[in-house]
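Protocol step 4 of 6: structure prediction from sequence.
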Amino acid sequence: MHTANLTREETAARSAAITLHRIRVELDLTGAPERARTGFPTTTVLEFDATVQSTWLDFIGEEVRRVEVNGEERDVVYDGARLTIDDLAASNVVRIEAVGAYSRSGEGLHRFHDPADDRTYLYTQYEPADSRRVMACFEQPDMKAEYTFVIDAPSGWEVLSNQSPAHVDLGVGVQRVQFAPTLPISSYITAVAAGPYARVDGEWTRDEQRVALGVLVRRSLVEHLEADEILEVTRQGLDFFTDAFAYPYPWGKYDQIFVPEYNLGAMENPGLVTFTEGYLSRGAATEAQRAGRANTILHEMAHMWFGDLVTMTWWDDLWLKESFADYMGSHASAVATRFHDAWVTFAMRRKAWAYQQDQLPTTHPIVADIPDLEAAKLNFDGITYAKGASVLKQLVAFVGDEAFFEGARRYFAANAFGNTTLDDFLVELSAVSGRDMTDWAGAWLQTTGVSTIWVETDADGAQHLVQDDVRPHRLRIGLYDRVDGRIVRREQRELDLIGERVEIELPEADLVLLNDDDLTYAKARLDERSLRTVEESLSDIEDPLARALVWSSLWNATRDGELDAARFVAIVRAHAPRESNGGLLAAALLDAAFALRHFVSDDRRAAEQRAWTETTWAALQQADAASDSQLSWARALAAASAFDDVHHAEVRALLDGDVPDGLVVDPDLRWQLLTALVTTGHADASDIAAEEERDDTGDGRTAARRARASVPDAAVRAAAWTAAWEDQSLTNDHLDAEIGGFRAGGRRDLIESYDEEYFARIGTAWTDRSIEIARRLVIGLFPARSSLDLVDAWLSVNPEAPAALRRLLIEQRDHLARDLRVRGAQG
């Protein structure tokens, strides 16, 4: 094992022997605008007690220049990841002078040069273990400390960290900003950002508490920053969580910064939350996109308590922050903001992620076994987030809202600024609910798999509600009828399904929903009569949550090969043009496109693709002017036109300004449309160059790179392949652009010759590249073959490959096996 991959056992031993008190970090970022400069000076002073003679600090950077222990200079013993510290006293002050490396992969201290105005922007991203790329530290969540950051940066820059500046010294062209010490936090949620960011200020007040609010973005995007709405959601969230948790927001200020080339949706650094710029639209945005942004703002805010105030001891209990934050994001959106249908989108989109992840051979319990950091990195997945949130929703239905929130309040009061495990939460919840939560935890948190629920009628006409993969469910069954052209709920039955089956008696109904209101975590099948009703009248179902559950049921049945993929796409063609909920529409469009590429049989794909492309064009023409639906169908047309050029002339006309009334063809949509034309051979390099000149921004240059790599020419695809694997100057976003271009249009005839080379390269990539970049290569370039022979051969001859790499390959194999199985079962 490489020493960068820390294990649970060794870090537990370290925290048992070391008591960490304070860390001071000094960073010299004055040279950041110089592109030739690859690194930055970083000095860390750590104060800690020790009961051992020797330990190590974690650091990954260009070099370690000096080590000083208790005032005495020591030899540098450094292997590129670990810095050995010997001859420790009972109390120690250790000073490390080193050089960190500016990141291009979004890990550590990421540096971005904005081509729009040639300004330089910096931000940090650490979870789970990249703070060691910026400072020498104890890289594990259970060693909390008080951090003081001191940053040297060019004058005129915004310089930010978790706390507010305590002192600022101005020099000639430079500034030194010393921040107030933090409260005790883990290294992975410390944060720094610096650059000429534009800032909008606000404030939140509650009784005697005043919290300064800030929203920041790079200057070239300031016109797209919807600061008023972001601040409104922030205030609504602080109101909600302050009341819900009965623990005042503890972190002083609340800055939120939108940053480029970001690997995640957002990160919960206390006092300085980072977000991807993907949450800012460079033109039109749907209400569903704004709802998604609000949900993420509230998700990260929930972390100020679940994760930051109380932190898991090790990554096994990652769910203690991510599952809770995912649940709270939807709950707070629904009750505290205008986005009251947050659970509707959750039912169709977030749970789909969980169901998919939970059916992989690499699925894991919500409370997972995480032996090391590589495993931790890959467990930020649909189980930890969406399944965990789904299970918590089931828990709330089981114990009630008040018991759940009172348990949370007691949990925070008992464990503030500490570290916890599963048992610490269950103790509080059991005490307040009056129930022993051990059985519930065993059934839901410590098992794997998703139940499927359906109704069976035996030979005597008796009905049973049946499940496989047995676990206890509390659920509701909704009975819906046709009434004056609508599908409305007539009746609802609530019951517990504990074992494999329970006898029920359901009256006749046009539509039977087995998990009405979406209380439990299970795939619910539609009976044949309900399926016929849905085919005819899905868009007539009044309740959007009921529609979400129907859409979800259809998609799960399609993925499992029980519903013909072409039949599913036909339902989308018939009813998506009438879907009024923007989140459900967006999800249905994505599901239809995925089904076409993966699940429709080879001999039917061209005809089904043609029918789908025609649907996207017709729906675009029929959509209300300036509606979310109109924008969604325009994006769907662009996606479809990369695989079928039947409307290439009309797509060109959209680029030339011949657009339906109300449609905003913003820069991002323009690139989608143009790239579709490039992919099908109806636009060329001169078109790309003209569009890049029109949109000479960071996003524009990335989109142009993808478009150039999408040209349907073998030499172009070969160049994209080589760049992806070998050009280590590519940023994370530029790498994705090369991968996207290489795979554009599903042109296997242009790229299938690289299948064997892929398997020859992945081992070296995993060893030589950062885990984030290697992960993108392994997933993004996995060959979509018509057989499993190559991946099976690699897995067979590489049993000793890193576990995290094998996990990715096993998951990709399973996706391919599902594709082949479902396609083969089509009629």
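Step 5 (inspection) to follow. DSSP finds 27 helices and 28 strands in the chain.
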